[in-house]
Amino acid sequence: MRLSLCTITFRHHLISLDEIAAFARTNGFDGVELWGMHARSLEHRTDRDGDWLAGLGLNVPMLSDYLPLEADPVELRRRMFALIRLARRWQARKIRTFAGCKGSAATSEDERRLIATRLRELSALAEDHGLSLLAETHPNTIADCGASTLRLIEEVGHDAFGINFDTLHVWEGGDDPVAFHRTIRPHVRHYHFKNIRARSDLAVFEPANVYSPAGRREGMTRLFEGTVDYQPFLEEISGDDTVEASLEWFGADCMEVLRHDRRVLAETAAPGLRLRAG
């Protein structure tokens, strides 16, 4: 497994990409999943790109952003081409977005048809540039539960379209992560790992809270100290060297938690789950 950290972790920190990359390299991470906001803020830094990271032994497996699928089609294509340019600059192979902004039960058939059509069109654009487009399993989108996510894959129906499998959000949606993963595995291109103290704390992951500098962080836990049991899931993917995953941490003590979780993953997570020595 190749493991990255997410630069969104440092969304409220006065820290440079140089420092993040140095931390990732020192602590055995393979790469950095680059948040779209951060990628855009670095456009003026022509000396920072995929070649620069490769020189540090790192890569950008995925550029994570939020495409406005319900927007004017001209604006949507403009946003997609901007992300494609950024992905190519950083040598990322995947672009992550969300499948709409409402849960599956609250989305009408017409709205759902529009989202699937737009994702199919954007997937074709991604494929033209050697990229994949991924929708994340996430609440308040139409990929909020197993049945709706599988339906979305069928509706989009494009080889360049895949899933970013967020294990906690799959569990949040009411599915068993191991069982659902066995069903959806051919379509999974990336994984997000994070955990929570209890189901009653899930509101801490709502976007408005996550993006607020004053948001609540209580309830966020280290990967192996939360209510979601990662051991069976990691055993499910162990031995698969094609797996690419990111530790997604939104709480305090960023570097300490990332360092700790990466070390525990390498040492005790699952037989056959191989990470490079850090």
From TrEMBL:
<dbReference type="InterPro" id="IPR013022">
    <property type="entry name" value="Xyl_isomerase-like_TIM-brl"/>
</dbReference>
<dbReference type="Pfam" id="PF01261">
    <property type="entry name" value="AP_endonuc_2"/>
</dbReference>
<dbReference type="InterPro" id="IPR036237">
    <property type="entry name" value="Xyl_isomerase-like_sf"/>
</dbReference>
<keyword id="KW-0413">Isomerase</keyword>
<dbReference type="GO" id="GO:0016853">
    <property type="term" value="F:isomerase activity"/>
</dbReference>
<dbReference type="InterPro" id="IPR050312">
    <property type="entry name" value="IolE/XylAMocC-like"/>
</dbReference>
<protein>
    <submittedName>
        <fullName>Sugar phosphate isomerase/epimerase</fullName>
    </submittedName>
</protein>
<feature type="domain" description="Xylose isomerase-like TIM barrel">
    <location>
        <begin position="22"/>
        <end position="259"/>
    </location>
</feature>
